[in-house]
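Students often ask what a holo structure prediction actually looks like on paper. The answer is less mysterious than it sounds. You provide the chain, you provide the ligand, and the output is a string of discrete structure tokens encoding the 3D arrangement of the protein together with magnesium ion.
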Amino acid sequence: SYRKGGYHAVRVGDQFAGGRYIAQRKLGWGQFSTVWLAYDTKTSAFVALKIQKSAAQFVQAALHEIEVLSAIADGTPSNLKFVVQLIDQFKHTGPNGQHQCMVLEFLGDSLLRLVKYNRYKGLPLNKVREICQCILIGLDYLHREHGIIHTDLKLENVLLVSTIDPAKDPVRSGVTPILERPEGNINGTVTSLIEKKLKRRARRAVAKISGQRASMGGMGEAPKSERNIDGINVRCKVVDFGNACWADKPFAEEIQTRQYRAPEVILQAGYSFSVDMWSFACIAFELATGDMLFTPKVGQGFSEDEDHLALMMELLGKMPRKIATAGAKSKDFFDRHGDLKRIRRLKYWPLNKLLIERYKFSEGDANEFSEFLTPLLDFAPEKRPTAQQCLKHPWLAEKDSIPNDMRTESSVEKVDVGISNLKIKVGK
Ligand code: ADP
Ligand code: MG
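The corresponding structure tokens follow.
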């Protein structure tokens, strides 16, 4: 899809925004964009440059994301530490058209990578606590301060925070930015060799910046041996606001990635902030066990949706009839008694038993963790605790949690370079 209306092809050393940003290395890509590590010559910092595909609907989507990110950036600094920061935005014209670009603070690996590095065994519970706190602080900020629902929380959309800031500490980080493209008049082979070398250098830089190398073997590499993440203090931020919306103007009926989707979304019974809390519970379970909480599949005579509802009820008990029958799509799945039409026999396996029997949790750990998660998985959306309430849960207060001074506004540390330069106009 590197054609008209599609992605913009980037090479190491390419310049953006009149030479302010210089491409260092590709960090990732999504359906809508490619994301590059770039060096900001104005602030001498590394940033993530998200370059959207150029067709009209992608430009539109980028402008929406920029609108959300700009709103978020207006809030209280202490909370801002847990949602990604927009630093700048501009348009870039290339052979495939005009691309809306976003400059974001540079973050590290996603939680999905973290779980992979740990060989899908589940992280130690003290790490799960730390990560849960970060996500909840981010969610509380989005929900309460801005009335924004993320609508696509999942492991890929929570990124670890870089532990070394090369801008503040260039010596310790030992990272030299690439400032220009390789010389022009060399033939293709040599160019690609040089690029390979540059890429290798950049990859090392990324690993250093994101502070993952020592503990997890560097970015993008498959684990060779077991990684020990006990030593690192995990911090993370919520990213990807492409699907986020204000609760008072939801624009999509079908939201959330399948496995993290709340029951009211499947039933089309309306939704609010509590859909994020459902996804959050799914994330917490996945971090602790290495497995997704719900992995519905199409079966003989039933749909993925119906299987999903059945899996929920096997874990959480029967859905109250009033809730089961209240959605626009309820009749597709439930009869008037509130029983599933096509999946009749459910095998109940409550969360604490699942944790003990399948994941070998101790009884104490299993009970405490399921007491934390179960209320978040209430079929009645309005009964789910809010992020703010959830932050007060005793399960989070156990050892090794985020120090209190990081959670209050009293000790606000200056926010990343970008914020002071933040002047964003959202186009129509
Ligand atoms: P899309 O909207 O196209 O799905 P995302 O915002 O999800 O794009 O970004 C795509 C990928 O780029 C992410 O999965 C991640 O690997 C990487 N990425 C995105 N933002 C950042 C960031 N701020 N720092 C580092 N990597 C990032
Ligand atoms: Mg994405």
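Residues 185-191, 209-227, 404-428 have pLDDT under 50 and may be disordered.
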